[in-house]
Every structure is written in C-alpha cells, then in structure tokens.
Amino acid sequence: MQILLHWLVAALVVVQYATSGAIVRTHAVHMIGQRQDPTDLLLHGLHLKLGLGLVALMVGRLALRLWIGAPMPGGTGSAWATCTARVVHAAFYAVLICEGLTGAIASYFWWPISLAHVIIFKILLALVTIHVAAVLWHALVLRDATLRRMSPQ
Ligand code: HEM
Ligand code: HEM
C-alpha cells in the first residue's frame, strides 16, 4: 500500500507542477478584466482538488505508518546516510502537507500566504533532487536493493 501511495504522490507532484501555470494565468487575466481561458479554468480547478487529494494521501500514509509501522531502512548505507534518508523522508511529509495547506489557505481564506506556497515548492524541488540523486547512487554505484524495495512486488 505504501509503495502504491509513494508513486501516486510522486505522479501527483508532477501534475501539480504542470497545472500551476494555469493558476497564475487565470489570475493575471482576471486582474486586467479579460475572460479566462476555459482550459486554464479547468486546470486551475484540477490543481486545487488534486492538491487537496495529495494532502489526504500524505495524511493516509502517516496514518498507515503509525498504525502498521514501516520496514527498517536498507542495510547497505552508512549511519549518516541512513540518518539523512530519515530526515529527507520526514521532510517530504511535512513539506507536502504544508504545501497543500498553504495553497488551500491562499485560495479560500488569506491570499498573502501564497508566497509561502511558492517558497515551499522550491524546498520540495530541493528535496526531490537530493532524493533522486540518492536513488541513483544506490542503483548505479552501490548497486543495492533500494530501488527494488520501492518497485511493485
Ligand atoms: C500539495 C501539493 C501542491 C503542489 C506541489 C503545488 C504546487 C504549486 C506550484 C508549483 C505553484 C506555482 C508557484 C509559482 O508561481 O511559482 C502553485 C501555485 C498555486 N497553488 Fe499549488 N500546489 C499544491 C497544492 C495546492 C492546493 C491544495 C491548493 C488550493 C486548494 C493550491 C493553490 C495554489 C494557488 C492559489 C497557486 C497560485 C499562487 C500564486 O500565484 O502565487 N495548491 N502550486
Ligand atoms: C515528488 C516525488 C517523490 C516524493 C514526494 C517521494 C517521497 C518518498 C518518501 C517520503 C519515501 C520514504 C518512504 C516512507 O517513509 O513512506 C520515499 C522512499 C523512496 N523513494 Fe521516493 N519520492 C518521490 C520520488 C521518487 C522517485 C522519482 C524515485 C525513483 C527515482 C523514488 C524512489 C524511492 C525509493 C527507492 C525509496 C525507498 C527508500 C528505502 O527503501 O529506504 N522516489 N520516497
């Protein structure tokens, strides 16, 4: 279940990035009093709804971990690598939940927080870069089972 949720969340992050430009465009067009592009309006709505769905999935992942537990980390990494992985993984949960909450607050309650939404996305990009670099290191240099652990069984 966690593996399925991992890939679903990763795919949704890509969708969120792909739909975010439509939000910026619909707002810009609205400011100058022109009619919004129907496709952009659709993508705007998708960004909000799928973003809330993504937060629900992350909360579900947390609940699953607390309820059933999680496997031990793979055994090939050094102590600092295991520690870094734990920090990056925990940061993913925090950052994705905060990203969704700031987006929702900006959309429905208090627009100025949208600046935090933009900044948190940059932190998310940094985490993804470290995460994917670590996966490549495990797969290509250490040649251990880390990537297989996250593949459908
Ligand atoms: C958790 C997953 C989410 C991700 C990864 C994400 C990502 C993004 C990105 C990359 C942008 C463009 C930022 C820029 O202009 O540089 C953006 C903008 C925006 N997102 Fe999200 N978003 C998420 C969830 C949400 C949710 C749940 C909502 C609302 C219910 C939302 C509302 C918005 C709004 C209103 C903007 C425009 C902000 C602006 O123009 O300053 N987002 N989002
Ligand atoms: C935005 C995209 C991504 C997010 C948010 C994300 C998040 C996470 C998190 C939180 C974990 C720890 C598992 C847990 O605690 O539930 C994890 C593990 C893992 N991820 Fe990702 N991930 C993303 C993209 C990717 C990509 C693109 C790859 C492959 C290139 C990948 C490969 C892995 C692997 C192999 C593990 C297992 C590590 C282990 O067994 O200790 N992830 N990911």
In short:
With 153 residues, the chain is an all-alpha fold.
Describe the structure.
The longest helix is centred in the middle third of the chain and has 31 residues, at 38-68. With 153 residues, the chain is an all-alpha fold. The chain folds into 2 domains: 1-70; 76-153. Helices cover 81% and strands 0% of the residues. Residues 2, 6, 9-10, 13, 61, 70, 73-74, 85, 89, 92, 128, 131-132, 135, 146-147, 149-150 line the site of one protoporphyrin IX containing FE.
Keywords, separated by commas or semicolons:
single chain, 153 residues, mainly alpha, 0% strand
Low-confidence stretches: none
Which hetero ligands occur in this complex? protoporphyrin IX containing FE
Mean pLDDT: 94
Structural class label: mainly alpha
Write the layout of secondary structure elements.
Elements: H1 2-31, H2 38-68, H3 79-108, H4 114-142, H5 146-149
The structure holds protoporphyrin IX containing FE (2 copies).
